[in-house]
Amino acid sequence: MLPQEKLKMIQSRYEELEAAMSGEMGDVAPENFVKMSREYSEIKPLVEAIRKYQATRDELDGLEEMLEGDATDREMKEMAELEIDDLKAQLPDLENSIKIQLLPKDDADEKNAILEIRAGTGGEEAALFAADLYRMYQRYAETLGWKCETMSLSESDLGGIKEIIIKVTGRNVFANLKFESGVHRVQRVPETETGGRIHTSAATVAVLPEAEEVDVHIADSDVRVDIFRASGPGGQSVNTTDSAVRLTHIPTGIVVQQQDEKSQHKNKAKAMSVLRARIYEAERAAKAAERSATRKGQVGSGDRSERIRTYNFPQGRVTDHRINLTLYKLDKVLAGEALDEIIEALIAEDQAALLSEIEGET
Question: Beta-carbon neighbour count of residue 61 at 10 Å?
Fold first, then answer.
């Protein structure tokens, strides 16, 4: 059953915002107008779904009333019965759409994300695979109009990636990428392998919501700052000044190092951004662990040690182990074109699990 009183309140609020923004209730201060516009945009899809559901219910009630009347001829009754069957078939999907939009929102969903990719077991092949994952996310971001900024990069000798940290900015970035955290495994014949044997390598992905200062307060006394000279591959000096920065958050032991910029100030700012994101995510993970203790249907914990997906080149398939989804579209997934099919399935599974949990409590 849908919570009718709550739906009425949402519609009433929507109409109130509409009237205020159109000037019917007098002038609105610019800062309030921005807040109202954001709230209006957020609830508009829900109100449209409610109205569609109500229109379908009203039409169904009207047809059922018509069937009860004696004046309706046989042909009209047959047509009405067909329409009733069609409308009744639509109602469950319309109800489900409203229920999903009423689910509690993750406060971090609308945030930008800090995406970290690290080569795992497999040596050079793991580094090459990490580079493949980076390109996959970069192309996926392009399809959604997001922007990627490299914050830190460590490359391998053959052009792979030992570690990369990027900031992804755009609409609902974290909401789309948050289930990517974990171990990604690849099975293929490495370019460096002459015997043609299939090797298994891995890379670790961590997706953190970008945290603002209002989200996480970091006291200066809690951070140890070490300044040193940046160095490149083979110990070559990147520059002649002490510009590299290492931040250690004393209470948690989290360490962030940044040396890509020539400016010490810029390196410190980037390192602080990553540090803030890691602390924020650690706090979120602790709260999520408490909530998920009784939630059996959870889609992945975000634990970086959890194996979440396998990319099998010989068979051209990608398998997400959390939802048992296999796509024989390896090339399209790595090109960023079909990654949305996996991400949308993960989001749908998480919503279904949360919906089931809530309905079980009522």
Answer: 11
Phi, psi of 255 (to 5 degrees): -120, 135
Find the length of the chain: 362
User: Which strands, in side-by-side order, build the sheet including 147-155?
Assistant: 147-155, 161-169, 113-119, 199-209, 182-188, 307-312, 317-320, 325-327
Contact (CB, 8 A) for 245 and 258? yes
Taking only Cα atoms into account, the Rg of the chain, rounded to an integer number of angstroms, comes to 26
Strand, helix or coil for residue 240? coil
**What strands lie across the sheet with 223-228, from one edge to the other?**
223-228, 244-249, 254-258
Within 8 A by CB and 6+ apart from 42, the residues are none
Instruction: For strands 307-312 and 182-188, give the pairing.
Output: parallel
Backbone angles phi, psi at 54, to 5 degrees: -65, -40
Answer for the pair 126, 201: CB distance below 8 angstroms, yes or no: yes
* Pairing status of strand 199-209 against strand 161-169: unpaired
Q: Is the dihedral of CA 19, 23, 25, 29 positive or negative?
A: positive
pTM: 0.75
Residues of the chain with pLDDT under 70: 1, 24-26, 69-72, 192, 194-195, 231-241, 290-305, 358-362
List, in sequence order, every residue forming a beta bridge with 120; answer none if it has no partner. none
Burial of 97 by CB count in 10 Å (0-12 exposed, 13-18 middle, 19+ buried)? middle
